[in-house]
Amino acid sequence: MGLLRAAGVVYKPVEQLDLGPDSNEIYVEADIKAPRMGGLLAKIFAWILESRIFGALAFYILKRLNRVHKFISNATVEEPPMFVPLHPYVDLDEQEVIEIDSDASPAERVQQAMNCLPLTSENSLDAFKFSCFRRWTIADYSRAYRNGEITPLKVAERFIYAVHESSSRPLSIAFFINYDAEDILRQATESTLRYERGAPISALDGVPIAVKDEIDCSPYPTTGGTKWLHKVRPCTGDACCVARLRSCGAILVGKTNMHELGATPSGINPHYGPPRNPYDPSRISGGSSSGSAAVVCAGLCPAALGVDGGGSVRMPASLSGVVGFKPTFGRIPHSGVLPLNWTVGMVGVLAGTLEDAFIVYAAISGHLPSHEPTTLPPKIHFPLLNSTNPISNIKLAIYGEWFNDCNEEIRLCCSNAVQLLCERYNWKTVEVTIPELEVMRLAHYVTIGSECSTALSSHLENLGRSEFGWDARVVVDIYGAFNSNEYIKAQKLRYRHMQIHNKIFAKADVIVTPTTGMTAYSISKNALKTGELDYVNGGTIIRYQIAGNFLGLPAITVPVGYDKAGLPIGLQFIGKPWSEPTLMHLAFAMQVPTV
């Protein structure tokens, strides 16, 4: 198809880019050329892509229409490739932090995190009986257990009943792919005995924590949202992050639902049902950590683990009205996580509050196992959230055209939230230009697609595609269409965008954006059995997520309001490498009532 070859962009050196507010760099909006597909249309599209006659032509047209040829395949990029977004550790001299002993156990780190939190009122259970819905925090569970007001065993029994009820309604919420009542009760009994002896392991002892079904957790298989993956990759033990939670006494209550293979941001799974949004069960909870977001939103767990390869922790957290925290690439061990996207995926935390996200992060962070790629082990600092001296002189970078590329209700809500923060703490916004954001989105898509296709290739040869949901089948077909030239070009662009973001962070402490470009959309009936491909809505949801994954940057989303339909809106802070304490300070400041 040489005669139809699309012209490629010639990227000028980063040094020549103007990143100031008056830059002539044009903001390129996403222009996704793909119809929404579900039901029969999704099946037909899969057959076309897999056809020997029409498949190659279809892939060529898709790449050309969606500007992959222009921005990636045929582009001229002078920068060297960067295959893994590992950042050398730099001491950022952050405000109001404490350094943690790198040899501290998970339980010791949890206690140190608790020591960093402000004191809370000693409310008894009776104080909540007649109030409106309120999520229990980790501190609430710990306090109630210590005071003997309730036991972990009683909590486990109520949890099992609530999950059963939510699964047996006419409209199942579909929180979990697997949960084992007997195993939950066993863990709860052991925890209850520890409290009776006056010897709980940590504040997490007896606290229910859910785990995305992309992370190994005994005694469950790890399905990745599929009907087959656990048959060819058996789970042989806990992932490192899960083992650390277990060592703190947490009750691991099961494997949460997710989009099959994390394929799209909707979270809809045709095999196990769509995890529905507790704010409106007719709508998505967001993906791919959809079940983790829904179970935290519903108040069944104060926190859950997710995996964030393309916003898959932060998007569902925002759409479901909870906190979503993705640390720096390499901060949390990735061993025991499905190797679907090894240079963009990262274990993250979804929680009802910033404090609970912090406590779980404290438990699972720390030195990496020696077999994982890393530079010198980064130091661990915790934010002193109980400090009477709020952090000062914070500069928030805002790229106006990008920030405003969302629906009007989100734009107003997030703008007002930033304004309130700046007024209360005397922080400043810095207007910047971040060029080539659409290029970065496409480069990330080529990267995550190529890595996922490679990870699945041996299984596809043996199994074929018959056991896939139709939406995941189409996505895997598209992933397999990227070639080595495109993958290398994408890694060159990764290095390029790392340099661009380093220049932005020389001007500001964090980048602030809405978390998603829209609130949760409705679940279509024809998606229930086949899944759905909605690249237009998906592109709007993922718009602000890519830097966190492609560049390995830490990011956090915190709820800041609701749209007219009562659906949650999130605000996101993207930080410098290893700046987790500053991000938690900012999220905590946003969470604290301003009146």
Can you tell me about this structure?
The protein has 595 residues and is an alpha+beta fold. 37% of the residues lie in helices and 13% in strands. The protein has 20 helices and 17 strands. It has helices at 40-49, 55-65, 68-73, 106-115, 138-146, 152-168, 181-196, 229-232, 240-247, 290-297, 314-320, 354-364, 400-403, 408-425, 437-463, 470-479, 484-505, 535-541, 546-550, 580-591, and strands at residues 37-38, 97-100, 176-178, 208-212, 251-256, 276-277, 280-284, 303-307, 323-326, 347-351, 380-383, 395-398, 428-431, 510-514, 532-533, 555-562, 568-575. The strands form four sheets. Strands 3-5-4-8-10-9-16-17-14-12-13 form an eleven-stranded mixed β-sheet, with helices on both faces. Strand 6 and strand 7 (280-284) form a beta hairpin. The radius of gyration is 23 Å and the shape is globular. One of its GO terms (molecular function) is catalytic activity. InterPro entries: Amidase, Amidase_dom, AS_sf. Residues 265-286 are annotated as: Disordered. It comes from Gossypium barbadense. It holds the Pfam family Amidase.
Topology:
Elements: E1 37-38, H1 40-49, H2 55-65, H3 68-73, E2 97-100, H4 106-115, H5 138-146, H6 152-168, E3 176-178, H7 181-196, E4 208-212, H8 229-232, H9 240-247, E5 251-256, E6 276-277, E7 280-284, H10 290-297, E8 303-307, H11 314-320, E9 323-326, E10 347-351, H12 354-364, E11 380-383, E12 395-398, H13 400-403, H14 408-425, E13 428-431, H15 437-463, H16 470-479, H17 484-505, E14 510-514, E15 532-533, H18 535-541, H19 546-550, E16 555-562, E17 568-575, H20 580-591
Parallel strand pairs: 4-5, 4-8, 12-13, 12-14
Antiparallel strand pairs: 1-15, 2-11, 3-5, 6-7, 8-10, 9-10, 9-16, 14-17, 16-17
Helix pairs in contact: 1-16, 4-12, 6-7, 15-16, 15-17
